[in-house]
Amino acid sequence: MPPFIPLNQVEEQSRQVFQDFHLRTDADFDSDRAEVLIVTTFTRVDRSLLSRMPELRFIQVASTGYDNVDLESVRERGIMLCNIPVANKESVAEHVIAMALAHLKDLVFLNSEMHAGRWPMLTSSRDLMGKTFGIVGMGAIGRRLAERLIAFEVRILYYDVIRLPEEEEERLGVTYVGLDDLLRESDIVSLHVPLTDKTRGLLDERRLRMMKDGAILINTSRGEVVDEGALVRVAREKGLRLGLDVFSVEPIVPGSGLTELENAILSPHIAGVTVESQMRFLQETVANVLRYVQGLEPHYRVL
């Protein structure tokens, strides 16, 4: 858990509801008879871990993503799996907009010039208003981003495997298009899809080359959604500007090429991590486990 969450308070409060509650920050145990397992995305829930928990019936991932869980093994055991897809939607949406504005307003360059004692007279700063903003994946975060973008007076395109109802499209002011058309038409593209067999490598070199020269690509979903080798090549050739919060290998590998791109703003998989969002994750997690313990259908069920 992040250091700003007081673990002793979490344990004390949890024991008021679950008398046998035990908080661990590792998985170094031989066997555990727990029926409920709560994990973050930093814990790999694989066949080995599951074999050490013979009575496990319910897994709650305290995160939006759950690609750390071996779904096949969980399904074989008949274990119920839930995530929390709503707690960080505000945080990620704001992070995306911050990255877009940082590029459009040339803030990285201007900041470095000022710290170097220079006073730049010219800048390539642009307005967000009037741009075409493409959202790939219209789940909870994608919809929240669209709601936030309304005030900036942008044209919003979106692509998802499931199209929104017409009334929801009208409420959000969004237009549904195919993925290739979205990439061709958008000045800014933001990715918000889960990592699955179908989304792995979704943006390959062919699709990356469809983007406008100088367009902005922001990825706060999962690094494997984009072919990173192709991304480095195409970003250099087409002058793409990048806002990357996720990477195929984390922590990022020095010399991967991404750290050498001057037109890339990088953050360490932290878009959804704020003091407020982590407290929302904690509250939603406890509430959902309570629903399960009380025999009610939990929210956000994956399996």
Topology summary:
Elements: H1 7-17, E1 36-39, H2 47-51, E2 58-61, H3 71-77, E3 80-82, H4 89-104, H5 107-115, E4 132-136, H6 140-149, E5 155-159, H7 166-172, E6 174-176, H8 179-185, E7 188-191, H9 205-208, E8 216-219, H10 228-238, E9 241-244, E10 264-266, H11 275-293
Parallel strand pairs: 1-2, 2-3, 4-5, 4-7, 5-6, 7-8, 8-9, 9-10
GO molecular function, one term: NAD binding
Family: Belongs to the D-isomer specific 2-hydroxyacid dehydrogenase family.
Protein name: 2-hydroxyacid dehydrogenase
| Oligomeric status | single chain
The radius of gyration computed from the alpha-carbon positions, rounded to a whole number of angstroms, is 21 Å
Which percent range fits the helix content? 25-40%
Structural class: alpha/beta
User: What's the SSE pattern?
Assistant: HEHEHEHHEHEHEHEHEHEEH
Strand order of the largest sheet: 6-5-4-7-8-9-10
Q: What is the strand tally?
A: 10
**Count of discrete alpha- or pi-helical segments spanning 4 or more residues:** 11
Mean pLDDT: 92
Q: What's the main sheet like?
A: 7 strands, parallel
Which ranges are low-confidence, i.e. pLDDT below 50, for 5 or more consecutive residues?
A: none
* Approximate shape: globular
Strand content: 5-15%
Distance between the termini: 24 Å
Q: Can you walk me through this structure?
A:
- The protein has helices spanning about 5-15, 45-50, 70-75, 90-105, 105-115, 140-150, 165-170, 180-185, 205-210, 230-240, 275-295; strands at about 35-40, 60, 80, 130-135, 155-160, 175, 190, 215-220, 240-245, 265.
- The chain has about 300 residues and is an alpha/beta fold.
- It has a 7-stranded parallel β-sheet with strand order 6-5-4-7-8-9-10, with helices on both faces. A 3-stranded parallel β-sheet has the order 1-2-3, with helices on one face.
- α7 links the parallel β5 (about 155-160) and β6 (about 175).
- The mean pLDDT is about 90.
